[in-house]
Design a protein that fits this description.
Blueprint lengths: L1 H8 L5 E3 L11 E7 L7 E6 L2 E5 L7 E4 L11 E4 L5 E6 L16 E6 L10 E3 L6 E9 L6 E8 L11 E8 L10 E2 L15 E7 L5 E7 L2 E7 L11 E5 L5 E2 L7 E2 L3 E4 L10 E9 L4 E9 L10 E2 L9 E8 L6 E8 L6 E9 L10 E2 L5 E2 L11 E5 L2 E9 L4 E6 L1 E2 L9
Antiparallel strand pairs: 1-31, 2-3, 3-4, 4-5, 6-7, 7-8, 8-9, 10-11, 11-12, 12-13, 14-15, 15-16, 16-17, 18-19, 20-21, 21-22, 22-23, 24-25, 25-26, 26-27, 26-28, 29-30, 30-31, 30-32
Length: about 425
């Protein structure tokens, strides 16, 4: 019996390979996951380039297929579960199917919805149609009490341009009817970024919504984190975004073994739980380019964004270990906050673990990092590994999703976790 408990204490959660039924020509990466708020056994994952996977048994088994839309599908998947039981899949557009051979690629942000647990999807609504400008890097959130969706993204005058006349801005739109129609996009950043798609570009915008429908959006530009806010559900915004914190090294960072990695900010809010309602939590990666050190940073606000705590680094292990792609979620049922990111195992090798940390006291303290991957994460600078990973949690059910590389192609994995079991896993 003693052996059993010792083995359990140092075990790792069961990992499940998600991407077995369908692989796009780009492999499978950049996963986003949502757990049904009506039945936590039902969950949906979106992946690059156009994959959609659904499970009815809590993530033990998955069915995958290609997602199709009236406006094409071109990556940057974002999955959101609303509190009425529907799923919403946000992604980029490719109306002609010719991708970069066509001027129409990235001409809008597309939203497809499912009311039957991810089995069937609407043909697609959209927002941000403003050719020839390009619409990129969306993220979205659902209000837990109202059937509203809030969306932010980057608009490029000309994607990839080094011309100083071409600018990037952060845009916002919302839906009051569950994703069927969308408000006219509003530019919420006054100060422009460039269009190179690097740290001087205004990018990584993530919205969060509070119980009173106040909306906050944070993004990175020019080695700085910026914030704008709306107190009326997105109808009006501050006329000028506010500087929040330095973003050391910028959002585009270098890590061993990858051609592209990022430390973009990720913002979440507790809009429902009793104890920590209306707390905001922000995380990002700081990269010291001179000493090549990486920190997972966290700050929180307990007064609806009026003030923020001094940023604190919460990673375990030496700062010389590379870290990237930090993400977060709040279990709205109990207020537990979860962080997820890649962390290098040995500074001499381009191999990584996926680390999970959590806070059960409103972000005052954080658990030690938990290694949730059974197989070490391999990477390659010859492949697209994706810009992000993701995590969702509801009523104690916790599902992280991440990308791994098997030497041939990228694949997406999840881990079977429950809040009550997390303390037993290996740190």
């Amino acid at each position: 019996m003693l052996y059993f408990w010792v083995a359990l204490l140092f075990s790792q959660p069961k990992n499940v390979l998600v991407s077995t039924d369908y692989q796009s020509s780009f492999g499978t990466s950049e996963p986003s996951i949502a757990i049904s708020r009506k039945n936590p056994e039902i969950m949906v994952i979106g992946t690059v380039l156009d994959g959609v996977y659904r499970s009815e048994d809590g993530g033990l088994t998955w069915e995958g297929k290609k997602l199709k839309s009236l406006y094409g599908v071109w990556g940057d998947p974002v999955l959101v579960a609303d509190y009425r039981g529907d799923f919403h899949y946000f992604h980029l557009s490719d109306p002609t199917g010719r991708n970069w051979k066509s001027d129409e690629i990235l001409d809008r942000i597309v939203i497809q919805s499912s009311s039957d647990g991810g089995q069937n999807w609407t043909p697609g609504s959209f927002t941000g149609f403003n050719p020839p400008k390009k619409q990129d890097k969306p993220w979205a959130v659902a209000h837990p009490s109202y059937h509203t969706l809030h969306l932010s993204w980057t608009q490029f005058d000309k994607y990839g341009s080094s011309d100083t006349a071409d600018k990037s801005y952060i845009l916002y739109s919302n839906s009051l009817d569950g994703g069927n129609t969308w408000s006219k996009p509003v530019q919420i950043s006054l100060y422009p970024g460039d269009c190179i798609d690097s740290s001087a570009t205004a990018e990584g915008a993530v919205p969060a919504v509070l119980s009173d429908s106040s909306v906050f959006i944070v993004w990175s530009r020019n080695d700085s984190l910026w914030i704008n806010a709306s107190s009326d559900g997105g109808e009006s915004w501050l006329p000028i975004e506010q500087f929040l914190f330095p973003h050391r090294g910028g959002w585009k960072i270098a890590v061993p073994g990858l051609q592209r990695a990022n430390g973009m900010p990720f913002l979440v809010a507790d809009a429902l739980s009793a104890q920590f309602r209306d707390h905001l939590y922000l995380t990002w990666i700081n990269w010291n380019t001179k000493k090549n050190r990486y920190q997972v940073m966290v700050s929180r606000s307990t007064n609806k964004g009026i003030s923020w705590t001094k940023p604190a680094s919460v990673q375990d292990g030496g700062r010389q270990l590379a870290r990237f792609a930090v993400t977060a979620c709040v279990d709205q049922s109990d207020g537990t906050v979860y962080l997820l990111y890649y962390q290098q195992i040995d500074k001499r090798k381009p191999e990584y673990n996926v680390i999970l940390k959590y806070s059960a006291d409103g972000g005052k303290s954080w658990s030690k990092g938990i290694v949730i991957n059974e197989k070490k994460i391999l990477v390659s600078d010859k492949i697209f590994f994706g810009d992000y990973i993701h995590i969702d949690a509801w009523k104690g059910v916790v599902r992280p999703v991440w990308t791994n590389y098997d030497g041939i192609q990228t694949n997406v994995y999840t881990a079977i976790l429950h809040k009550n079991q997390i303390k037993t896993y290996k740190r």
